[in-house]
Write a structure and sequence with these properties.
single chain, alpha/beta, Rossmann fold, 5-stranded parallel beta sheet, two-stranded antiparallel sheet, 9 helices, 7 strands, about 15% strand, globular
Length: about 200
């Protein structure tokens, strides 16, 4: 049996990555979500709970990682993020490997927000960046409940610039309208299927 084709999906905040990932799932393509994997690891009984407790006991409440307390620790301690990533990244990688191993689909989409930043793109057969003009991105993000301009700028500062992501991507989909995005997703599935049959 041929190995599945691994398509790494990414895009900066507000570019439509989650919506695009859902469109792949609607077409029957298995989608692994890095953020969802972290939520599972932090949930009660999750594999990261005891290790996070060892790093920062106050970040664990009721046998689950309290993300607000974790963020407070990160804000106080410049080295916290590196220590958390040393625990979480290998667990996320194991979760991803198990998902791939359990699937017998010809195409698997791996939704990874920091695909290029973490070097995960090197494990993919191809990469897809979703994008939109900066003014649309900004209006989408600032429409989110509780989002401020300062938070938006802070998130953007930690992400690779959109232009650089697009330059590194195998494929790019612009997410202006739902219908156009869905059509582009279907075209890409067909194209990968034809090229890698």
């Amino acid at each position: 049996m041929n190995r599945a084709f691994l398509l790494g999906l990414t895009g900066s905040i507000g570019m439509g990555k989650s919506t695009t990932a859902a469109m792949f799932a609607d077409e029957g393509v298995p989608v692994w979500d890095a953020d969802a994997a972290v939520h599972r690891l932090y949930a009660k009984g999750g594999a990261a709970v005891s290790e996070i407790a060892a790093l920062c006991p106050e970040a664990v409440v009721g046998d689950a990682v309290d993300r607000t307390r974790l963020k407070d620790w990160i804000a106080r301690d410049p080295g916290a993020m590196t220590r958390i990533e040393a625990v979480v990244h290998p667990l996320v990688a194991s979760d991803r490997a198990a998902f791939i191993a359990d699937s017998n689909a010809p195409l698997i989409v791996l939704d990874i927000p920091l695909l290029f930043e973490t070097g995960a793109d090197t494990m993919m057969d191809a990469t897809l960046v979703v994008t939109a003009p900066a003014d649309i991105q900004r209006s989408r993000v600032l429409a989110r409940p509780g989002m401020t301009d300062a938070q938006f700028k802070s998130i953007l500062s930690r992400q690779m610039p959109d232009a650089e992501k697009r330059a590194r991507a195998t494929y790019v989909i612009e997410t202006l309208t739902l219908d156009e995005t869905r059509a582009a997703v279907r075209n890409l599935i067909a194209r990968i299927g034809a090229e890698h049959a």
